[in-house]
Amino acid sequence: MIKIAIVEDEDLYVKVLSEFLDRFQAESGTAICSERFRDGDEIVENYDGSYDIILMDIQMKFMDGMSAAEEIRKRDRDVIIMFITNRTDYAIRGYEVDALDYIVKPVNYFAFARKLERAIGRIPQDKDAVITLNIPQGIRKIRIDDIFYAESEGHNLVYHTVHGDYKIRQKMSEAEEELGRHGFFRSNKGYLVNMRHVDGVQDGCCLLAGQRLLISRSRKAEFMAAMADYIGSMV
């Protein structure tokens, strides 16, 4: 599923873009969901990094598209930004925020479809195997295979990854629901481990990333069964 944000203050163009997305979806077989924002400040205020593509009008009342893109880039380096404008001279400034392309008003479907196809081609094929972490410094998109384990720390979780540790405010149950289908299992109430990185089990602990993480007595049988299932799936 491709998630697209439409940031446009003119209802007419929102209607046109929505119709174009529906048509593209029908013709290409690509599953798309879209969300509309009426101004740049709306998307910036609660930006959560969940979008694959942002279609951004440049001229808006409260926060223009260029300013909004600058704020988004501080938090998200990966999202694809495409500007919508009736002035081609804005295209040069788009490179400052690493915009992929720009769409000139009035929007033509065939040109739009070509640009959208190019944008979708830039999205990683394994995008479903990526988790978005909202850390104090901004948004980080981490490949799930790069996570060693998640550790409960009060009301926070610490994700231990090949790139370092990231602390976010999240419940362990939420992480377990999201990562359980990707080969993660609770060794005890405080650890959610990636079976991919488990090197073995010794003295009631699972060994991974140079750490010994305790397997609770009540979970040991389930943990060993989950580990055997994971190993079996790799054969």
How would a crystallographer describe the biggest sheet?
Answer: 5 strands, parallel
The number of helical elements comes to: 7
Query: How do the SSEs run, as a string of H and E?
Result: EHEHEHEHEHEEEEEHEEEEEH
Radius of gyration: 22 Å
Please give the structural blueprint.
Elements: E1 2-7, H1 11-28, E2 32-37, H2 40-45, E3 53-57, H3 65-75, E4 80-85, H4 91-94, E5 101-104, H5 109-121, E6 130-135, E7 138-143, E8 147-153, E9 156-161, E10 164-169, H6 172-179, E11 184-188, E12 191-194, E13 200-202, E14 205-208, E15 211-214, H7 220-234
Could you list some keywords that capture this structure?
alpha/beta; 5-stranded parallel beta sheet; 7 helices; 235 residues
Short synopsis of the structure:
This protein is 32% helix and 33% strand. By secondary structure, the chain is α/β, with parallel strands linked by helices.
